[in-house]
Structure formats: structure tokens, C-alpha cells
Amino acid sequence: MKFTSAVVAGAAVGLTYANPVAKRAAINDADILQYALTLEHLEATFYAEGLKNYTRQDFANAGLNAAAYSNLQMIAGDEMSHVQFLTKALTAAGAKPVEQCTYAFPSTDVASFLALGNVLEGVGVSAYLGAAASIMDKTYLTAAASILTVEARHSAYLRAALGEAASPQPFDDPLDFNEVYTVASPFIVSCPSSNQMLPVKAFPSLTMSSMAAAMTGSKVQLTAGTGFDMSMDTSDLYAAFITVTGPVWAPLTSSGSGKFTVTIPSGVAGQSYVVLTKGNSQATDDNIVAGPAIIEVGPMVGSMNDCGSKSMSMSSMSWAMPTATPTKGMGSGSMPSGSMPSSTSSASSMPSYNAASGMGAGSITGVLGAVMAAVGLLL
Q1: What is the Cα–Cα distance from 237 to 252, expressed in whole angstroms?
Q2: Residue 238: C-alpha distances to residues 4, 190, 372 (Å)
Q3: Can you give the pLDDT at residue 31?
Q4: Phi, psi values for residue 159, rounded to 5°
Q5: Run of H or E residues at 35
Q6: What is the CB neighbour count within 10 angstroms for residue 202?
Q7: Cα–Cα distance, 330 to 332 (Å, whole number)
Q8: Is the residue at 108 inside a domain?
Q9: Are the C-beta atoms of 373 and 79 separated by less than 8 Å?
Q10: DSSP character for 232?
Q11: Counts for the chain of helices (H) and strands (E), in that order
């Protein structure tokens, strides 16, 4: 799957990451509400820019018909509704919602726009799923789950439209806060310094050298990037493929300079995530040393009929990636900065993870009440 590793590999160049073994402070429900808003800002901005930059005719020329274009407009509307809902909930609680950031989305045509959208939707599903375990209030959990199910529909639609299995496995893969932060951070240029940071850090990057989809039993090359300790003893390093029931472990073969070979194990499929760990007893903030890398596991199945006569094979999609350098005001870890081209419009993204100023655990009850009030307003 050409686009996934291209996104992370290219955008990760020049990033400076925080200590990967530093423990994250406890994240409460208020933080999760802000976390969700940063995700929805990212997605809403991404679709708004894409539909502004590429006309209906551009989509038709790429092989998509009018129905597909209209579906993308509806997805864009969903993301904006999610932004409005979470913003109203935080405002009603007397909290300051995270402000928008400046983005750099490295899509240059319809094909790369759809490819990147497919990745972002998959990461969004995994982010909501991973956050669910940290939500304390049941009514808030229900509200978050109602967004998660819609994000999953978006993901399934884009996967099918682009020739991938819409539902490649019976269980989706959850990502923890730091893992999402690591994957999403390359798309951020800068965020307002007034945004309060949440206790989230990024791990060193991990990318595939080959961009093709991988099959179970095949070997892939992984490269650990900026922030990875090249002097580390690699004899006890393992590849951990993230699943809902726990890591699926695979041994690594090191060729030095942060380069490794791993065989795709059984038990993983679709948009999958692999991290490098010290030992093979757990995959947590304490022992993850790089990643996640995004790997599409499984064969192409052919594009959906409503995408027109042209096959939008994901393996043919790629784009030139900007070079990122560290900047401030993005979150606990360092982010890419101004060497990346600015977005036409900007919003807060996943990696900003910035809570509203002055908002602590004592504000949870008010936030949760506001969430339910906002639900009533929006339904």
C-alpha cells in the first residue's frame, strides 16, 4: 500500500521526539474530549480542503462518478458536525475548546487525496477505539461511540472505493494516545501557543521501505527514524502488531542503522500498526522504542462499481512529501514546522492534543453534562 508508509516516512523527516520511555500523566475525560476535537478538526479540514482543491470534474477524470463525489461531501459534513458537537460541549462547560492549527496535507491530486483520507479514517477509528478504555463516564462513552461508528463507516466506504476489503478483519485495532500522536504529528505545521498541552508524547518514527501491501508470511523492511537510539542493543527487540486482544509478536532481524526485517504474522489484516518493543511481554509506553508504522496487510479486492471504470488501485498512489522540522505549541512532543507548506485553511489536529486552558479533573462533571446537552441540541 504505497501511500501509507510514504505519508509517515516523508513527513517524519526532521522530527525531534520526546523520550519514548517517559510515562504519560493520567488522561481524564476532559482531556479525551479535547483529544476527540483535535481529531475531528483534522478530518474536517482535510475534507474541506480536498473538496475545495479538486472539482467534481477532477473526481470524474480520476474515475469516480457523481455518487462517489456526493458521498465524500456527506463525509465532509459528518466531520464538521462532529467538530460543532464537541466545540459546543466544551463551551457549554465553560472550557476553551482547542483552537485550530496549521496543517500540511501532502496530497497533490484526487488519487492521493483519497489515499490519505483512507489512512486518516483508519487511524481515527483506531484512536477512538483506543480512547474508549480510558473514558470513565458511561454517557460520555456512548456519545464517543456514536462518533466512532460513523468514522468506521467512512473508513469502510473509502477502503471499498479504493479496492481494499471494506471489513478486512472481525475486530478493529485500538491505538493508545501516544501511538496516535506519533502517526498523526507529521501533518501539523504549528498550533497556537495558547493551547494547553495534554500529557502526550511521540515515539521515534518507524516506516516501511516498500510501499506495497504485504501478505501474511511475507517479509517487509522497517526503518526506525529520528529519535531512535542507534546504539541500542537490538538482540531483545521485537515487532509487536497491535490488535484488540493484545500484540501479535514477530521476531526482528537487524541489519544495523535502525533497519530491520520482519515477517508478517498471521492474525493481522487490513490497516495494521506495528511498533518495536524491548522484550515481548508487553507493548506499552514503557518499552515501545519506535513506531507505529502503518502496514496494509492483505490483497486488493477491486474497486466498487460507483467509482467508475478506472481502477483506483492503492498501490499506484503516492505523492511527494514535505520535510518537517520541529516547532513549538503543538503538544508534549515536538512537531513539524514551517518547512511544510501551509494549508489553505487550518484546524487543530490529532497531534496537538491541547486541552483548554485551566481545565482539570474537577471540570469533568461539567464537561459531561455539556456533552449531553450538546447531544440534545444536535439531535
Answers
A1: 7
A2: 22, 34, 43
A3: 85
A4: -60, -45
A5: helix 29-53
A6: 29
A7: 7
A8: yes
A9: no
A10: S
A11: 8, 13
What's the rounded mean pLDDT across residues 159-179? 94
Query: If you average pLDDT over each of 3-12, 30-39, 171-180, which comes out highest?
Result: 171-180
* Amino acid identity at 123: V
Quote the CA–CA distance of 7 and 45 in Å, as a whole number. Answer: 17
223, part of any domain: yes
Between 138 and 228, residue with greater pLDDT: 228
Q: Which three cell numbers stand for residue 90?
A: 466544551
Burial (Cβ within 10 Å: 0-12, 13-18, ≥19) of residue 361: exposed
Looking at 121-130, 168-177, 210-219, which range is the least confident one?
Answer: 210-219
- Tens-place pLDDT, residues 304-362: 544 443 444 433 344 333 333 333 334 444 333 222 333 333 322 222 223 222 333 33
Phi and psi (nearest 5°) for 366?
Answer: -65, -40
Residue 241 pairs in a beta bridge with 248, 274
In this structure, what C-alpha cell is assigned to residue 49?
480542503
Task: Give the type of residue at 172.
Answer: D
pTM of the complete model: 0.77
Q: How far apart are CA 21 and CA 228, in angstroms?
A: 12
- Cα distances (Å, whole numbers) of residue 316 to 48, 115, 163, 170: 24, 10, 11, 27
pLDDT of residue 127: 95
Name the residue with higher pLDDT: 243 or 21. Answer: 243
Biggest alpha carbon–alpha carbon distance for the chain: 57
User: Region 279-305: what's the mean pLDDT?
Assistant: 87
Looking at residue 329, its pLDDT comes to 37
What is the side-by-side order of every strand in the sheet holding 237-241?
206-208, 219-224, 259-263, 248-256, 237-241, 270-278, 288-297
* Structural domain that includes position 35: 2-317+327-378
Pairing state between β 354-355 and 259-263 = unpaired
Residue 365 belongs to some domain of the structure: yes
Residue 297, φ and ψ in degrees, nearest 5 = -110, 120
322 within domain boundaries: no
The total of structural domains in the chain comes to 1
The neighbour count for residue 151, using CB atoms within 10 Å, is 26
